[in-house]
Amino acid sequence: MSLTTGDKVVLIGTGAVGSSYAYALVNQGICNELVLVDLDTEKSEGEVMDLNHGLVYAHSPIKITSGTYAECKDAAIVVICAGAAQKPGETRLDLVSKNLNIFRNIIKSVMDSGFNGIFLVATNPVDILAYATWKFSGLPKERVIGSGTILDTARFRYLLSEEYDVAPTSVHAYIIGEHGDSELAVWSTANISGKLIAPNLTDARKEEIFVQVRDAAYQIIESKGATYYGIAMGLARITKAILQNEEVVLPVGSLLEGEYGHNDVYIGIPTVIHRAGRKDLVELLLNEDEQEKFANSVKVLKDIQASFWT
Ligand SMILES: NC(=O)C1=CN([C@@H]2O[C@H](COP(=O)(O)OP(=O)(O)OC[C@H]3O[C@@H](n4cnc5c(N)ncnc54)[C@H](O)[C@@H]3O)[C@@H](O)[C@H]2O)C=CC1
Ligand SMILES: CC(=O)C(=O)O
């Protein structure tokens, strides 16, 4: 069966992240049909009403409805933002059992609809849940994408843009690895217009910037209860890259099969995104320290996987 070709998006989970993503899609005119699904149907229906009331001022026409899993049948992309979120003091990995159970049911319901498109997963712990989506759905790896380190990389580029007074889009730098505490900054290739950043910063300053990136979620959750605008913009960016067949490189969650010397794990790495989902992985040349940190991040994720998949 060939890939569904329209640009219908079904969003599962219309909480803080899901509703912000829907709002970003409408404002940027990324798709022309959006269906909202949530266990709490009253909430998704309310979100649909609210979004529709802004349509007269939207970027371009879009049909927004609430629906059931049957709507996934002809969807190009199913985006999953459903499940539990971190409470203050919790790590992303604390959510694993709860959200794996939720995902078992969600993926089955989506696949039972006859879905033949691309999954984009945001629910945490996102790397484990992207892997679970790939396993539960039976879809090829190209059609299951996690949000990976799209948000962490955006945070990193923003902080470096502040450091150097240039636009974040002119900073070329990646956070890779787990979307979580074991992630790493690839300082060895981070640059502005080809000029390497690392030689101009002390180790102490680099560590300060990295810690700000790594711990941003904890800080935001402590101050306002949840993070959602940043990831919503990141998810909208990935959605646009897929629907517009951009072949752009984005740091998303992709399955490793020998790349970087590891396999059988979803993790945040630069990936070429096109209309069929993931195209190629871009293998960064990591230095020894980065390779060790990346290997540790893989191990953190694999140890968790091992307790759920033999
Ligand atoms: N990947 C990333 O970079 C980020 C991921 N997240 C994650 O996104 C997820 C959602 O976060 P929030 O929107 O803040 O949470 P939320 O609690 O505001 O929303 C979750 C929604 O999921 C729905 N839901 C729960 N079980 C469901 C099921 N079985 N079927 C359908 N809907 C169901 C709930 O009714 C609720 O509307 C969390 O796991 C959070 O950690 C949050 C920020 C960044
Ligand atoms: C909550 C989360 O995963 C983040 O903001 O990075």
UniProtKB/TrEMBL annotation:
Positions of post-translational Phosphotyrosine modification: Y218
Q: Subcellular localization, per the record?
A: Cytoplasm
Q: What is its EC number?
A: 1.1.1.27
One Gene Ontology cellular component term attached to this UniProt record is: cytoplasm
Family matches, as Gene3D superfamilies: Lactate dehydrogenase/glycoside hydrolase, family 4, C-terminal, NAD(P)-binding Rossmann-like Domain
Name of the featured protein = L-lactate dehydrogenase
Which key words are in the record? Allosteric enzyme, Cytoplasm, NAD, Oxidoreductase, Phosphoprotein
Q: Which residues form the active site?
A: H179
Which residue intervals define the domain Lactate/malate dehydrogenase N-terminal in the entry? 8-146
Annotated metabolic or biological route of this protein:
Fermentation; pyruvate fermentation to lactate; (S)-lactate from pyruvate: step 1/1
Subunit comment = Homotetramer.
